[in-house]
Amino acid sequence: MAKNLLLSSRTSRDIDAKIERVLNGLGNPEPPIRLEDVRALLNLDLKFYTATDPGFAEETISRIRVATIQVYKRPTLLIDAIKKMSLKALYLPDRKRIMLDGDIPEKKHRWNEAHEIGHSLIPWHDDMMHGDNTHTVSHSCHEQIEAEANFAAGRLLFLRDRFLDEAFSVDPTLASVRKLHGIFGNTLSTTLYRFVECVGVDVPMLALITGHPHSTKRKPEFDEAKPCRHFIRSPAFMARFSKISEIELFKAVAGYCGPQSGGPLGATDLILTDDNGENHRFKFETFFNRYDGLTLGTYLQPEQLMVAVS
Length: 310
Fold this sequence. Notes:
Layout: E1 2-3, H1 9-25, H2 35-42, E2 45-49, H3 54-57, E3 64-66, E4 69-71, H4 75-85, E5 89-92, E6 97-101, H5 109-121, H6 123-129, H7 139-157, H8 161-168, H9 174-184, H10 188-199, E7 205-210, E8 228-233, H11 235-240, H12 246-256, E9 263-273, E10 279-288, E11 293-302
């Protein structure tokens, strides 16, 4: 399960300034942004690969680090890394080339491509991609650079503050997320992710991206200890509800979801306890798009303590 990692204000500003220059260079386009225009502006190449394609292995990769695996002019090592780590995309700084896994569904290409564009825009990521020994590629460091690339991708695909304006003009519901998904041309999952992080700066909000929550619809590989693919917490939610686990949230969501094969699965109010032991009411709703279970939880109000009077 991946929890969203919030960046420091300084890092966010630095990355956002780079995205602003790109959008200005494109004449501040209307949504949805065309990534082929972004690649043309940045002189980036795009190529697709499959982990089983021998033609890809014939290419010489000069020097690249894929996570913690060093590759020195040995393309077969890169193929091995792709297979072992289930990589869906990568960026080759030496060639200014973005590589996308052609085996994954086409609708997921957009986010993966924007993520790699993010790597290309952040200068300090080149050192990591080249395997600079002055940097320590620890697990936390890897998480940090991935979070930075995700932030850049989000700001690019959702046109910086254009999405903020749109998101704050609608109700905090999954119907609104679906509407914004249509406007900006991104997947429902990435739109939900961005919606929670933007709208939930001051209001506690959360989202879960899972398989189908209903017990009869779960896949054989479902893991009760790790039921969520993503647990997205807004800044306000992190500040006040940091002790709540994905396991207890998923169990609560599964309790109200029906077994429908697609569309709305259910909605209800749930009571969550904050870090001070006080109860609060949230509105929860879940939608299944036949790939992911998308759950949005939005803060409503403090839960009043009922006192019996004799």
